[in-house]
């Protein structure tokens, strides 16, 4: 259960089977940093190509194809006082005929007040001059090496995770990824100090982070899509276009989870989800959109767990 | 500001320009009842064809094409002790190859405890034997007559409203509909004692209701899609397939609203929505899916309102 | 087997259960006219509201819910020398970020040379000054009354037919529609002298027509989506968004047809379609898109027909 | 203008920047072989992992990012007497509720008669006992290395080409790919003796091939999506889901082509495409679907070409 302090020196804009930067054991924690989506670090220095450069990959001892990698986000701290956003909603999230009315999109600076825990536009337009929003740090892009020698752009997402931009991936959550290659090869980056659902301007408040995460190998637990768990909820993540298909992936994965680990067959799971499920929207900006299927653990209390794989 | 007590005697399974059942004035309230989605009333008697039979239409004096009809849901009370659901998630919300694994879907009875404010399966399978969920009453299907002589099935939805199955349409909300015909011709029905996001089993806990709503005519306020407002939030509703298009409709309508009534041009609105918007999922079961774009009113406090149309 | 000459005096912009304008017997032919999509007749006089005003509905004696109405397009003749198009591709058929580059769309006049059988822009831009295209007349919008009292806008399409804008609906084809109401109530209009796949400028060469069609009632033949047959092919039509769903509807309907009338179970039909099917694109402009699943009759020759319902 | 005879010894199931197997000059031809989609060669020996193993990559001297690689398919000859298909349409091409009715899908053998130029099921079910179809050889999957170190599974497609399964990629066609890396790194494989539109059973008649292709570098010609040209037509290819987005990519790419090389601005191009465009369906089976936008060269004759990049 060591805690490694790792300072990255190279970054990747694809998630694949690159040479690991560090080998860690099952249960170890890592304290490290991530660049912002544009490739800049905590001092504002540009160290990598824009487009979600990743820290890693980290090789987790004992992780084999067919296992699950559990990653708990222990802490997520912006390590500078500014972030940036794009200034206009993306053309794919408005009606096609409304695109004509969109002004040009520019890069805009936000001030991050790390003491107060807030963000605000550095130069707000008049109607937003008093707008101060609470920070809610999250990881936009993280995941494991996909199978078969693929190297997938950090602009998109899939079964391996990737650029999901889901607000729920913040401190306290444990994310689960299917392991496709020995060591899992975990990558992470693209932190946001804050982000609305859908990442509809194409960014959250993009900034660099200092963070800690802890990895665990769940031997023999086989999952197909990223999953997550926090104090209140369990959730599954579908990445695809259209959103309809992302809904299908996430819902199917939740049905599998409820069957395999909570003793709910498809009918029992349908009773519960039909009346209690929540869907959250990850990004609707990238090539693959993200939809999350979430259910409160309080409704699962009475169920017998089929296994003890799940953490927390 | 009269309060009408109206007992329906006929019901419609399309939303169109049927003969009004009652004429009410701007500001009036109506106390009435709705059948469940299967056509049964508070005594369990089948009075109409299945498929969301509507109470109404109500003619609202003074409403003209180009205006907006505001409907506040004052109260929504189940008027019997049972509701029904379908027992299995719909085949369109799971991966195509998983459909083979779905068992047959049956009609299932839920007990509604109106004193405790809870629902529970009448004959729960073992793992759900202790499942008791709080009721959260809502209107699944309501809206106004569409333009041009259309009569649209209550199985689907559109600019006129219809079968949106959004949890947010519960007591305390004010829904806004574009007026397409003189008198607006407001229909409502398909109440749910409870429903998860997406209405993924094809039903909420379907039951009959006794309810009160209040109508107001907003002269000269022109909207394109249903909108809503409650104590915390304003929201807009897009109805279409795929969900991607519903996102586009709802987001575009929110940009229009923020521009016209909150003084936020597209760039200012993008700053706010980009970091603070929420998307909620209405149904992903019907021919048209429903996505809601929602923003907290607390972030709008500092903005000057362009008009005073909005209620509450 | 009478031939009726019918001169319309009123038109509808929805397809529903309006009062029939003429009652015809099984096997009868009708010679009539249709307005262009903008509501103008052969003399250029505006007689109806824009948006695909329909001639009809025609009540076909003996047609009952559960039957199929077969409509053979015997002849389709433009009855004036001009048509119109929109000048720019629709914003929904290009990449969202390309919409900014689209110029404004205007109404443009085409000359129809009825002797030569060609169309050409009345005032072509220089690079198209020699462009002369062969006419290929077709019906953009036709269908039967939908069930349950629905009245569906002629801007869209569904199981009842409607605005499908498929090039295959020209002279010599027999179209099949499911009958939902007594008499079927057949509507038609929106003729095009020519149209590319997808109707991507939102119009074909829109003009008025003089035409003849013949109706037959197929008792007990139950279909779910429009179908068609010509000398070479049989085809099925799916109307929905996204196109993926239109593909599903059309393919499923073809599998049903091959099973019920050509003796091919799903596996045999899959062998054939997998290697020989063709998909054609109807419009990708309207609220519902149209995809056609087509198979050459030459590959069906060796199969025993299960029934003798099919014409031609 | 050398002709290389290349016998592959290794294969890749991703398209990326693997070590080139051969360096060829601009204008050179290559005679080589491809395995079938399952990894077997002309003697039926399994030499690679299933899932479209590629021959290559070929490094084309002089090709630089920003150029276009033109690949003419000179000849495409099945090199054995059998192919295989899947026996049932994929679950994603039928209505979700119809999936229950699909029988299990099995691998089925077809006989390829290379003298007669036909294919037939080795063990046809009774209703197809006389079904003999003409072969129409095509390349299912080919393309160039994507940018940024990506390695994209041959199960899918994108701007770089990949698994498009378009019938139009047969002998006589010239395919154009955007060059993203030095040498372009061209991969090819997954030949089909025959395939219907959409590849709806998940396969064409999958077999191994002996073939010849010729490469040319088009310096300074910048394209965004694969294009093609044959004796009759030019076409552009969009790869995405849903099909609606593939339509957008292909149409936008065609508008760019007509503007840059045929002197047709967006309005002139819209006039032409609106009335003369054809859309063809590549696969609707893979993660990304494929739609082709095609226009006959006869309608382009009168236009002045802006450049002389295009071959044929």
List key phrases describing it.
homotetramer; 312 residues; mainly beta; Jelly Rolls; Endonuclease I-creI; 3 domains; nine-stranded mixed β-sheet; six-stranded mixed β-sheet; 2 helices; 35% strand; globular; disordered C terminus
Description of the structure:
The structure is a homotetramer. The two termini of chain A are about 15 Å apart. Mean pLDDT of chain A is about 95; it is low at about 300-310. In chain A, a hairpin with a 3-residue loop joins strand 18 and strand 19. Chain A has helices at about 245-260, 265-275; strands at about 5, 15, 20-25, 30-35, 55-60, 70-80, 80-85, 105-115, 120, 135, 140-145, 150-155, 155-160, 160-165, 175-180, 185-190, 210-220, 225-230, 235-240, 280, 290-295. In chain A, about 10% of the residues lie in helices and about 35% in strands. The longest helix of chain A is centred in the last third of the chain and has 20 residues, at about 245-260. In chain A, the strands form four sheets. A nine-stranded mixed sheet of chain A has the order 1-4-17-6-15-18-19-21-20. A six-stranded mixed sheet of chain A has the order 3-5-16-11-14-13, with no helix packed on it. Chain A has three domains: about 5-80 and about 135-220, Jelly Rolls, CATH 2.60.120.580; about 85-135, no CATH class; about 225-300, Endonuclease I-creI (Roll). Chain A is globular. The first copy, chain A, contains two helices and 21 strands. Chain A has about 300 residues and is mostly beta strands. Chains in contact: A-B, A-C, A-D, B-C, B-D, C-D. At the A-B interface, helix 1, helix 2 and strand 20 of A face helix 1, helix 2 and strand 20 of B.
């Amino acid at each position: 259960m060591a805690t490694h302090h790792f300072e990255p020196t190279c970054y990747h804009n694809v998630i694949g089977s690159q040479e690991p930067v560090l080998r860690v054991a099952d249960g170890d924690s890592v304290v490290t940093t991530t660049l912002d989506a544009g490739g800049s670090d905590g001092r504002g220095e540009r160290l990598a190509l824009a487009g979600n450069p990743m820290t890693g990959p980290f090789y987790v001892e004992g992780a084999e194809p067919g296992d699950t990698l559990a990653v708990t986000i222990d802490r997520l701290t912006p390590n500078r006082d500014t972030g940036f956003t794009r200034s206009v909603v993306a053309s794919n999230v408005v009606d096609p005929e409304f695109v004509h009315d969109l002004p040009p999109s520019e890069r805009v600076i936000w001030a991050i007040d790390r003491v107060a825990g807030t963000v605000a536009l550095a130069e707000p337009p008049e109607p937003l001059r008093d707008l101060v929003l609470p920070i809610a740090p999250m990881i936009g892009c993280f995941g494991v090496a996909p199978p078969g020698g693929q190297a997938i752009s950090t602009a998109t997402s899939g079964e391996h995770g990737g650029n999901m931009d889901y607000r729920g991936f913040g401190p306290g959550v444990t994310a689960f990824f299917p392991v496709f290659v020995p060591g899992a090869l975990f990558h992470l980056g693209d932190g946001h100090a804050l982000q609305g659902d859908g990442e509809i301007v194409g960014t959250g408040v993009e900034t660099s982070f200092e963070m800690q995460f802890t990895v665990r190998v769940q031997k023999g637990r086989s999952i197909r899509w990223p999953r997550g768990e926090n104090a209140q909820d369990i959730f599954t993540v579908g990445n695809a276009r259209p959103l309809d298909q992302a809904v299908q992936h996430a819902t199917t994965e939740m049905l599998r989870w409820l069957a395999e680990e909570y003793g709910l067959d498809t009918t029992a799971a349908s009773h519960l989800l039909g009346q209690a499920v929540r869907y959250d929207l990850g990004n609707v900006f990238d090539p693959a959109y993200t939809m999350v299927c979430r259910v409160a653990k309080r409704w699962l209390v009475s169920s017998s767990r089929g296994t003890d794989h799940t953490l927390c």
